[in-house]
Every structure is written in C-alpha cells, then in structure tokens.
Amino acid sequence: MTTIAANLQAVRARIARAAEAAGRRAGDIVLVAVSKTFPAQRIAEAHAAGQSAFGENHVQEAVAKITALAALPIEWHFIGPIQSNKTGPIAEHFQWVHSVEREKIAVRLNEARPEGLPPLNVCIQVNVSGEHSKSGIAPGGEIELAEAIARLPRLRLRGLMAIPEPTPDVEFQRRRFALLRELKDKLAGRGYALDTLSMGMSDDLEAAIMEGATMVRIGTAIFGPRRKT
Questions:
Q1: Domains and CATH numbers, the chain
Q2: Which helix (H) or strand (E) holds 157?
Q3: What is the pLDDT of residues 81-98, one digit of tens each?
Q4: How distant is the alpha carbon of residue 147 from its chain centre?
Q5: CB atoms within 10 A of CB 133
Q6: pTM of structure
Q7: 170-189 vs 142-150: helix axis angle to the nearest 10?
Q8: pLDDT tens figures, 175-199
Q9: Cβ distance 96 to 106 under 8 Å?
C-alpha cells in the first residue's frame, strides 16, 4: 500500500469515527482531497486508491493537472479566492466552486459556464471568524448573495463554506462550525434547497462533522506537508 493510500484509509477511518460519534452516516460526508501544490502523479495515486474528488486553489496549476488527468473520472473542486480574470477557466474546468463571496464573481462564473455543461455547483464562502486576512462574506451577507445566485441559470447554489482560524480548542472549533450551520439553516428556511456544508480540514474535521459538515477538505493528512509556492 502506498503512503497516499494508507493516509486516505486513515482519513476515512477518522471520518467514520466522527460520523458515528455524531450519530451520522459516514457515507453522507464527501472527502475532498486538497491537492494544491502536489503534482498530477500524486493525484493519480490517490485516485487509484479510490479518491474521486480533488480540491485546487490556483487556477493555472489546476488547469494543467486537469488537462493531464483528463482520462480519469475526477470531480474537481475550486476552493480558493477567485480573481475576476480567472472566472473563465474556473467555470470551464471545475464541477464545484466553494469560494464565491461576491455577486460580481457569481455573474462572471455564470456567463463563462459553457452551455454544454450542467450548472456549476457553488457554495458561498462565509468569513465566520471575522479575520481581515480571510476571504468570505460577513455573516448575514449570504442572504443577499444567495438571492443573486438564484437568478443565475448556469449556477446551482448548494450551500456554504468556511475556513475558521486554526485552534486546538475543540469547543471553539465547534462554535465556528455551528455558526455556519445556523446560517445554512436560515437560508433553508427562506426556501433555498441547500445540501452542502463545506467545512473541516486535517486538524478539525471531527468538530466539523459533529456540527453537520457534508464535505471536508483534507490536504496535509493525505498528501503530507504542503510544498511552498
């Protein structure tokens, strides 16, 4: 068994244990392997070990990998900040975008989504920690942005995403994730058919699952320490 295969097995076991502790089914939680900075060969290894969803946050790097691995049935997730001039290749090459935080970006993704593809699955990124260095709309702003996305036919709003500040305090982790869940529930109460909470990474996936995560984005625990970019 390769190191990546063993790491994936360990991560899946963590997800299963967390799901059981939360009274949930592990099968309801999607593992997105965050492969940014790692070469296409490493992604192919993970795919051979049964992983199908991968997350990237640098457009040029991601498109090169997507092209190189086009023969594999991979679901690609864009998880990083989005520049206006990068919306075209994102809309053309990805199935999911987790990091929509402005109406302008949503409009440009909608306009760039090719007609022959299904609507682009999107999540609104919320800055639940209020950090100036973090991307994401402030809590409360997701309502107006959801209304804007709902008017765009080439996008499908699936839910919310957050990247809270790192902390070893599990109860603090859970409070941040609980806030995102509450915001999603409020949107659902307004009639939005949302099914996705994208939250939780290598160091806090258990807390995220306890608070309802449906997608966890795991990089280091699968691929090892990230290479500097």
A1: 3-223 (3.20.20.10)
A2: strand 155-161
A3: 999 999 999 999 999 999
A4: 21
A5: 7
A6: 0.96
A7: 50
A8: 999 999 999 999 999 999 999 999 9
A9: no
